[in-house]
Amino acid sequence: MESNTLKDQHLDYEILISFLDYLKEGVIVVDENKNILFVNRFAQRFLNTPDYEGKHFKEVINDNYLYSIISHDYDKDTKLEVNIDSSKYLVNVYHIKGKKIIHLQDITPFEIYKQAKKDFVSNVSHELKTPISVLKSAMETIEDEIKDSNILKFVDMAKKRINQMDSLINDLLILARLESQEDLVKKKKYLLRKQVEDIFEDLQHLTKDKNIKLKNNIPKNFEVYADEQKLSIALKNLIENAIKYNVQNGIVEVNAKTDGKYDTISVIDTGIGIPPESIPLVFERFYRVDKSRSRNIGGTGLGLSIVKHITEAHKGKVWVESQVGKGSRFYIKIPKT
Ligand SMILES: Nc1ncnc2c1ncn2[C@@H]1O[C@H](COP(=O)(O)OP(=O)(O)O)[C@@H](O)[C@H]1O
Ligand SMILES: [Mg+2]
């Protein structure tokens, strides 16, 4: 019976080579002795001669990075990012049947896009901060001057919206900063209990409406190894949620334990809980379980993605266990060193 698979027809060498020449990606193949077997059209820009076949790579490779990548003997397939000329390349090194295959993808456009997006968010947020603070003080002046309670109702409404915008911009700026490489985690050892105490004090005003009780169960001498400012932002977000999404006379507890290698901090509430189908989504940007309910509670939908960012920057993990109507437990687990 006649077969039509490529394998049975011995896929034409010419077809393969023309295909590789069409690619807007580089392919270089060297043998065990690092003689060049093949260079596709795209990758020929890295050579000093078109006449490369059978030559040792040292004679023909122009670029220092590629030179060292080919020189180096990796013990497994490898992925690297390198700058060649003014472009950024993702380089994959594969080992197939004793041959080494170097595959180069130009990721410059993607890098430019990522940078542009970050710059945009951070510039727009900075630009918005000034008009918002002007609006805030204008509202305060009106509030002081006007006695008409009908008008004051509108002022109050405007103030709430302005504060919402302010939180949104602050959260966007925190995220933009976390994403930029300049903002590294600066870890040190410190006592956790005091930090939680300070956050409780900061958030005390939110507990009044529903008479929420805050419990700091962190042992007196419990030390964490973390970026103090960043972990504070993360815990503040979790504790604020635990208060906001709680019920009348609810309780919020913060605990910590260690296994010697990792510390686990938990923020536990007796609130409304999160339905199982929403649990995988709550750490996504702008995700809010119940849009209409959340709108009344106020928030940006960015808090938990900030928490996730900060935990991961600490090489840690964050997760949640929750039951609707019973409450939620958020955990942050970070290494001790
Ligand atoms: N402790 C909690 N209990 C119940 N739901 C929560 C809790 N924490 C977060 N959520 C849900 O996850 C969503 C995302 O949280 P977050 O990113 O902090 O945004 P925000 O609080 O601004 O809405 C919230 O809108 C809420 O629906
Ligand atoms: Mg929140």
UniProtKB/TrEMBL annotation:
<dbReference type="InterPro" id="IPR035965">
    <property type="entry name" value="PAS-like_dom_sf"/>
</dbReference>
<keyword id="KW-0418">Kinase</keyword>
<dbReference type="InterPro" id="IPR003594">
    <property type="entry name" value="HATPase_dom"/>
</dbReference>
<dbReference type="GO" id="GO:0004721">
    <property type="term" value="F:phosphoprotein phosphatase activity"/>
</dbReference>
<feature type="domain" description="Histidine kinase">
    <location>
        <begin position="123"/>
        <end position="337"/>
    </location>
</feature>
<dbReference type="InterPro" id="IPR003661">
    <property type="entry name" value="HisK_dim/P_dom"/>
</dbReference>
<dbReference type="GO" id="GO:0045121">
    <property type="term" value="C:membrane raft"/>
</dbReference>
<dbReference type="InterPro" id="IPR036097">
    <property type="entry name" value="HisK_dim/P_sf"/>
</dbReference>
<keyword id="KW-0067">ATP-binding</keyword>
<keyword id="KW-1003">Cell membrane</keyword>
<dbReference type="Pfam" id="PF02518">
    <property type="entry name" value="HATPase_c"/>
</dbReference>
<keyword id="KW-0472">Membrane</keyword>
<protein>
    <recommendedName>
        <fullName>histidine kinase</fullName>
        <ecNumber>2.7.13.3</ecNumber>
    </recommendedName>
</protein>
<dbReference type="GO" id="GO:0005886">
    <property type="term" value="C:plasma membrane"/>
</dbReference>
<dbReference type="InterPro" id="IPR004358">
    <property type="entry name" value="Sig_transdc_His_kin-like_C"/>
</dbReference>
<dbReference type="GO" id="GO:0016036">
    <property type="term" value="P:cellular response to phosphate starvation"/>
</dbReference>
<dbReference type="InterPro" id="IPR005467">
    <property type="entry name" value="His_kinase_dom"/>
</dbReference>
<dbReference type="Pfam" id="PF00512">
    <property type="entry name" value="HisKA"/>
</dbReference>
<dbReference type="GO" id="GO:0000155">
    <property type="term" value="F:phosphorelay sensor kinase activity"/>
</dbReference>
<keyword id="KW-0597">Phosphoprotein</keyword>
<dbReference type="InterPro" id="IPR050351">
    <property type="entry name" value="BphY/WalK/GraS-like"/>
</dbReference>
<dbReference type="GO" id="GO:0005524">
    <property type="term" value="F:ATP binding"/>
</dbReference>
<keyword id="KW-0547">Nucleotide-binding</keyword>
<dbReference type="InterPro" id="IPR036890">
    <property type="entry name" value="HATPase_C_sf"/>
</dbReference>
<keyword id="KW-0902">Two-component regulatory system</keyword>
<keyword id="KW-0808">Transferase</keyword>
